[in-house]
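Recap from last week: sequence in, structure out.
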Amino acid sequence: MQSARFSLNSPCGLQRCVSRTITCQEKALCLFNLSILDSISLGVSLMYKRFSLFMLVVVGVLLAVVPAAAQESAFPVTIEHQYGSTTITEAPQRVVSIGYTEQDMLLALGITPVAVRYWYGDEDGILPWAEDYVVGDAPVALNMPYGSLNYEAILALQPDLISAVTAGITQEEYELLSQIAPTITQTSDYINFGMPWQEVTRMIGTAVGKSAEAEAIVAEIEGLFAEARANNPQFEGKSVAVSYYYNNTYGFYTSQDSRGRFFTELGFVVPEELVETAGELFYADLSAERIDLLDQDLIAVINLQFIEGGRETLEAEPLFSELTAVQEGRVLYLDAQAENAIGFSSPLSLAFALEAALPQLEAIFPPEVEAVTVTCEAGFRSFPLTAETTGCIPENPERIVTVTDSDLDAVLALGVTPVGITNGRGQLTPPRYLTDVLPEGVTVVGNFFTPDLELVLGLEPDLILAAGLSDPAVLEQLNAIAPTVDTYSAGWDWQTHFRTVADALNMTAQADEFLAGYEERIASLQTTLADHLGEEFIVARWSAEGPQVMAPITFVSAVLFDLGLTSPPEIPELQAGHAHSAPLSLETLGVIDVDWAFVGTLQAEGDAVNALTEVLENPLFQALDVVQNEHLFVIDGSLWTSSGGPLATLLVLDDVEAAILESE
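Predicted C-alpha cells:
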C-alpha cells in the first residue's frame, strides 16, 4: 500500500488524514501532503539543471551589485502578518526555516538556513531540485510533526530569525516562537497554506534584506509562465478541475491552493462552482452524486502516485470513466516528481513542473493552427484530409470508398451507397450487422484497414474515407487514387466521427436529423426501462483464448451510459486506453456476474464461436447469478464489440430493449 511509505514522523499519516475526528486545518495539511509525499527520484532534467545554474548566476550577480552596506541599510524592517507585525533590526545570520516549503525561497536567495523542517524524502529535508543551492554546512533537519514544534531544539540553534510562512502555525505557537527569535508567518490575506509562492518569496526576501533579489527571482519564474501562456493561447479560459482520489473519495483543489494556481497561471480557470463548493477551504471532497463537478475542459490528477494501480485503477472506476473529459482524453497524469514539484510550488520546483506538464497539456490542447485553405477547381472545395493536411474534395462526391466499418456505417446512415467497402474488423465478410442494409452490387476491396489498391483504383472513386488509418504509406497511395479523408481522431466519440463523415459528404443537416432521432430514442427507452436505470452491465467479446471485456471508453459503453446503465468499478486485465481487457480465464469469469451481461464474437464461425459455445455449457458458468437470472444474452459481436457507428447505436438499443423486456 502507498500509505506504508508515510513516516510516523511526517506531518500526518494517511489514516490520520482521512479520519473524521481531525480538524479542518489538519486535514487540509494532510491533503497537501498526499499530492507530494512519496518516493522522489534523484534525477533532475538537463533543462532544470540549466535553470538552476542560471538562478545561481542571477543571485550571484545581484549580490555583487548590492553591497553588504546596502543590504544592511534595509534594516530595521517590519513584516506585517496574520498575527501582527515583526521587526527585524539587522540582517539575519542564523535563519531557522520551520515552514514546509520556504527553505527553497531562502536557498534561491543565497541563504542556507541553519535548520529546516523535515517533511519527507531525504533525511536532510532538502528536496532534489534544491540540493545544488546548499552552500557550506547542510541545514539541521528538525523532525517535527504538524502541531508539535520542538521549541527546545529551535532555541538550541540560536536563531536570529524564524521563518514560518508556510508552517500553518497557530497564534499560540507564534507567540512562543517569538520569545526565541523574531518570527514571520503568512499574511491574513490568504487561508493557511494558501499564500502564493510569489508573496512568500517577497516576504522572506524583505525579511532577510534581499527584496531586489526576491523580485528578480519572482520575475524570472513568472516570465516562464508568461512565455508558456504566450506560446499556448489555447489554454486561456479553459476550465480545470485539479483533482485527487483517495480512500474511494474524489475531490479537488481550488485556486486558493498552489496546485490550482499552477494551472491558473497558465491561463486555465477554476470554475466558480468549485470555489463555492470548497468555501473557505482550498480543497473539497465530493460525494458520488457530484463527481460531475470534475468534468471540466481539463482534469488534472495530482495524486496519481498514491492511487494503488495508478491510472489503470482510476480509469476503471465507473464514475470517473463516464466523465466526458476522460472519454475524450482530456486528463493530465504526471509522474511522482512532477506532482511533487507542482505541490511544492517554489521558485526552485516550478521550472521542473512546467517542463513536465507543458508537453502533455499541449498534446491535450494542441496549439490552434490557423486554418489552411487551398484553391480548388470548380466542383471541389477545401477540406482537412488529416489533422495536419488540407486538400480538395468534391463538393458532392458520388463514388465513395470506405476502408473501415465505422465509415461504412456512417455513410449508410446518411442514405449513401458506397461503390467500395472493406470487410468488417476481424471478419472475412462485410460487417454482419450491416448485411440487411447493405445494397447489392457493392464491391469489397479488401480487409479492414488493408484495401487492395488495384481494386480501389478500378472503381474510380472520387472520395475515400479512412477513419483512423495511420499508415502514411497507405494513405499516400490512396490519395494518389482519390482524395482520402481521415475521419477519426483519438478520443472522438461516435457522434463526432459521424459529423465529420457528414461534413465530408456535404450532408451535415442529415446528420443532425439522425442525431436528434437518437436522442429521442434514448429518452423513450429510458421511460420504458425506468426500473432498470443504474444497473450494471458487462459487454464481452469472446475469443478462442477467452472473454475480452469491453472498456468504458468504447462506443457500446457510451451508448449504454447514455441509456442510464453503469459499468462495474473494476475490470481485470484492462490497461488504460485499451478498448478491451486481455482474454480472461475461467477463474475470473465472476467479472461478468453483474445485472446484465452481453457476450458475442466478431466472427460468425470458428474457434471463438466454439469457445463461447463450450463455456456456455460449463457448470461454473451456469452457476453465475447473471446466468441463473437469465440476464445473459448472446449478441452479434460484430455489432457490439467493433468500431460502431450511428446505425450500430440504434441496433444496440433495440437489442437492450428486447433483452430486458424479455427477462421481465
